[in-house]
Design a protein that fits this description.
alpha+beta, globular, Acyl_CoA_acyltransferase, 5 helices, eight-stranded mixed β-sheet
């Protein structure tokens, strides 16, 4: 789906095997759950979705299904940002009966991380108080094409404005080149015209073209 990268940037498909370490303090979810991640009923209503912050481990099943299916459950979290106390994980949920827990149908992670080359940004975007990078943006395949991603991104932006009230926040991310229009329709702009290629998390598979996008929110 969206994602900051289904993969890690690398000059050659060789050296990322050790980038993703399991963390023994994280309770990885079991394969069973209130929501079947592989399929959501075609009769489900997407008009009254619930958006909220979630623990890091709640993102794991959907990351595994959509973004990193070749990586085992215990390696789905990236400790360098996923486990930071400042990182925000968000989820989109179908309306449900009270007290019945379900898996999110959309996920998105926001981490405080500096833009890689701030001097290359347009002058109007250079003097910001906080840099936040969007990571691991995904929607259940059974629910795609329902504006869930757009709504989840809008929720994330509102949440950042609340958390960093009064501060100028640069939201930035690596967008798949074929997703440019989606992000532009959400108010994002291209931050660097140069595109680059990412490979799979194990340095395998066909490279995917990316471009840096974002905006001040």
């Amino acid at each position: 789906m969206f994602d900051d990268g289904k993969s890690s940037t690398m000059p050659s498909p060789s050296s990322t095997q050790g980038n993703h370490q399991p963390n023994s303090s994280i309770n990885t979810p079991s394969s069973s759950g209130a929501t079947n991640l592989t399929s959501v009923s075609s009769g489900s209503s997407f008009s009254n979705l619930v958006f909220r912050r979630i623990p890091a481990e709640r993102t794991i099943p959907l990351r595994h299904l959509v973004l990193w299916p070749s990586i085992s459950i215990e390696f789905q979290l990236v400790p360098s940002y996923d486990l930071s106390q400042d990182t925000i994980h968000t989820g989109a949920f179908l309306p449900s009966t009270p007290h019945i827990e379900q898996d999110p149908i959309g996920i998105l992670t926001l981490a405080i991380q500096p833009y890689s080359n701030p001097s290359s940004l347009p002058v109007s975007l250079q003097d910001q108080d906080v840099h936040v990078q969007l990571h691991k943006f995904a929607v259940n395949p059974s629910c795609q094409g329902k504006s869930i991603g757009r709504q989840l991104l809008a929720y994330a932006i509102r949440l950042l404005r609340e958390v960093y009230c009064g501060k100028r926040v640069l939201l930035h991310f690596d967008a798949r080149a074929n997703q440019q229009r989606f992000y532009q329709n959400c108010g994002m702009i291209i931050l660097d015209d140069n595109t680059f290629v990412k490979y799979g998390p194990n340095g395998e598979g066909k490279g995917v073209e990316y471009v840096k996008m974002g905006n001040v929110i």
